[in-house]
UniProtKB/TrEMBL annotation:
This is 1,4-dihydroxy-2-naphthoyl-CoA synthase. Belongs to the enoyl-CoA hydratase/isomerase family. Transmembrane segments: none annotated. It is an enzyme of class 4 (lyase). GO terms for molecular function: 1,4-dihydroxy-2-naphthoyl-CoA synthase activity. It catalyses: 2-succinylbenzoyl-CoA + H(+) = 1,4-dihydroxy-2-naphthoyl-CoA + H2O. GO terms for biological process: menaquinone biosynthetic process. Its EC number is 4.1.3.36.
């Protein structure tokens, strides 16, 4: 895992000693637009963050101060999707959204400069967004022949309301950090030079809290919007806790020891 992370071309992963993973999209020449390789590396990075128990919070950001992310790299856009080295057109960013929502840890978008198009949706899918005062937000899909009808539309409408979401998509305007704060698109706005300090401060406050409570709350807040998949995420948290109980272990041990399980002593406490 660690070796493969260090070989990344488009994404940088840094991990602090207190358990914060900082994932940076590093393509500043194109305002951190993502190509298929970028998404593959982001998937690996988020999987790593999920699997490492020592990682408790994740920051997603873009390199430099000019952009968080400008969405899909239009030069990689082919017939039916974005085409990487294997020649297969994909919309892999949609899978990344699901992965970020299913990560049982808090993901914070740290946004300086443009969060535009698919880059805007990436920050929205994060649990929290800390914006610098130079941040600019917006969609471009109807201008550049694209749209995101998944989280990019319905989840956006849940955040900002139906009228605003329709305005954002149908007019393709840009909004500054103050407007984004008023719409509830971001959690706070800070001067650019304070951005990383403030984001780390939020992470450290989260690190002091119960990881299980946070994982369950995230799953609960996703559950209504994500249908069966959301319920499965929430129920998965319950299963994970059950596996850790003596009752859960008795079932497994009885099977492996080829005997009847002894559940008689377990009671459901009110
Ligand atoms: C972000 C924005 C508004 C910034 O404008 P400006 O004027 O400050 O910068 P400029 O000159 O446009 O960009 C700097 C360089 O980055 C490249 C530009 O082509 C330019 O390159 P050079 O001319 O210096 O060589 N660049 C910027 N964004 C890029 C991109 N997305 N792909 C490839 N190259 C890009 C302005 O740059 C802008 O509007 N960018 C395009 C935003 C956009 O339309 N993104 C795609 C939306 S669709 C999407 O993301 C998507 C989806 O909707 C559904 C599924 C999957 C993806």
């Amino acid at each position: 895992h660690i070796r493969s992370l260090s070989k990344f071309e488009d994404v940088r992963v840094e991990i602090s000693s207190d358990g914060i993973a900082k994932i940076t999209i590093a393509r500043p020449a194109v305002h951190n637009a993502f190509r298929p390789l970028t998404l593959l590396e982001l998937e690996h990075a988020f999987r790593y963050a999920r699997d490492m128990p020592s990682i408790r919070a994740v920051i997603l950001t873009g390199e430099g101060h000019r952009a968080f992310c400008s969405g899909g790299d239009q030069s990689a856009r082919g017939h039916g999707g974005y085409v990487g080295d294997d020649g297969i057109p994909r919309l892999a960013v949609l899978d990344l959204h699901v992965m970020m929502r299913r990560l049982p840890k808090v993901v914070i978008a740290m946004v300086a400069g443009y969060a535009i198009g698919g880059g805007h949706i990436l920050h929205m899918v994060c649990d929290l967004t800390i914006a610098a005062d130079n941040a600019r937000f917006g969609q471009t899909g109807p201008k550049v022949g694209s749209f995101d009808g998944g989280y990019g539309s319905s989840y956006m409408a849940r955040i900002v309301g139906q009228k605003r979401a329709r305005e954002i998509w149908f007019l393709c305007r840009q909004y500054d950090a103050k407007q984004a704060l008023q719409m509830g698109l971001v959690n706070t706005v800070v001067p650019l030079e304070q951005l990383e300090i403030e984001t780390v401060k939020w992470c450290r406050e989260i690190l002091e809290k119960s990881p299980t409570a946070i994982a369950c709350l995230k799953a609960a807040m996703n559950a209504d919007g994500d249908g069966h998949s959301g319920l499965s995420q929430l129920a998965g948290e319950a299963t994970r806790l059950f596996y850790q109980s003596e009752e859960g272990k008795e079932g497994k041990n009885a099977f492996l020891e080829k005997r009847k399980p002894r559940f008689g002593s377990f009671v459901i406490e009110e």
